[in-house]
Specification:
It contains 6 helices and 19 strands. By secondary structure, it is α+β, with helices and mostly antiparallel strands. The strands form 3 sheets. Strands 1, 2, 3, 4, 5, 6 and 7 form a 7-stranded mixed beta sheet that branches. A 5-stranded mixed barrel has the order 9-10-11-13-12.
Length: about 350
């Protein structure tokens, strides 16, 4: 019909309407930053803004120049946003969101680095947070599916959210971690020790489950139904934290939205590496007041040495890494020996 807008025009009008509140917030923030900067640098304000634009060959806007000057003068430019706004924001921001999924730690051979990706959501959208190295290891151990987190010093790059060196991740609460003997109907997280493996998780179990096992704390045990196959099946004696599971009819249901965090083995103990040294074709460690000897090949694995360059002796690389291992945390088993050493 003549005079009626087409579908594309309607879609453009809707996008403008959705963007309007965001633009208004940006304008109010720019006005507030300008006011603070004028108070800070006085009459030289306009000259400073023009100089900053000229410094970048005229390629930055007045708003961007204003925020760069604020950062240089110690005026905070970070603002709290929804995840849906992250893609549009070129400056540091903070946000609150819920953790929906935590992916496994990913190691990069030859780079001695690891990353962790966390899928987040809030009322306005969703996004992926990527963390690196020590921060990734800490988050993998401390964060759980269902947790609410507050992040500061965040920035958007290559389709993902990262946290700057001065940024923070604060846990705001989430699903309670229950004991095996105090479970009640509904979603939760639960920690315990793997008991009897009732059905091998590599086969087909009853009731649509891919496998099942007992999770125990003391003499109290509850059956865990795995609703999907696990690449690394639970082992008897392992201490597990099962996140975002569902308890009903006396059983724990572990599905695709759940996560299995391994906390070591019931027979494992923790201590620090007190001393370490090469002795012929063996490497000697002192951990928790106990002495352990391992082969050179075992030492390469424990020290996370992923490859020995041609022409270099394993002993040379081991000797270098041993110095970094002293004082670091380690796990050991009275029968199996050293299980792991916390080295980069």
């Amino acid at each position: 019909m003549a005079g009626m807008p087409d579908n594309n025009s309607v879609a453009r009008l809707r996008l403008k309407a959705q963007a309007w509140p965001h633009l208004m917030r940006e304008m109010r923030m720019d006005a507030e930053l300008e006011k603070q900067l004028k108070e800070k640098i006085g009459e030289s304000f306009e000259e400073a803004v023009d100089g900053k634009i000229e410094e970048f060959g005229g390629l930055v806007s007045r708003a961007s120049a204003l925020r760069l000057l604020c950062k240089e003068n110690g005026i905070g430019i970070e603002r709290k946003i929804r995840l849906a706004q992250a893609r549009e924001t070129a400056l540091p921001f903070s946000f609150e969101a819920k953790i929906d999924r935590i992916f496994p730690l990913q190691a990069y051979e030859g780079r001695n680095s690891v990353s962790l990706r966390v899928h987040l959501s809030d009322r306005g959208g969703e996004g992926t947070l990527v963390l690196w190295n020590e921060r990734a290891k800490e988050a993998s151990a401390e964060l759980s599916i269902g947790d609410n987190v507050e992040c500061t010093g965040a920035y958007f790059r290559n389709g993902e959210i990262s946290i700057g060196s001065t940024g923070t991740i604060k846990k705001m609460g989430g699903l309670p971690v229950r004991k095996v003997g105090s479970l009640s109907y509904g979603p939760c997280s639960v920690e315990g020790i793997v008991g009897k493996i009732e059905v091998n998780s590599g086969g087909e179990g009853a009731g649509g489950a891919a496998g099942s096992f007992e999770l125990c704390e003391g003499e109290k045990c509850t059956s865990v139904r795995l609703m999907q196959r696990q690449e690394d099946a639970p082992k008897k004696g392992e201490r597990l934290l099962l996140q975002n599971v569902f308890f009903k009819a006396g059983e724990i249901y572990f599905d695709r939205s759940s996560r299995m965090a391994r906390k070591g083995h019931v027979d494992e103990k923790a201590g620090n590496v007190e001393s370490a040294g090469l002795s012929g074709s063996a490497v000697n460690f002192s951990v928790g007041g106990k002495e352990f000897a391992v082969t050179l090949q075992e030492a390469l694995v424990l020290l996370k040495i992923r490859g020995v360059p041609e022409g270099v002796k394993p002993e040379t690389l081991i000797g270098i890494k041993l110095q970094k291992a002293i004082g670091r945390g380690a796990k050991y088993d009275a029968e199996k020996g050293i299980v792991s050493i916390d080295v980069d």
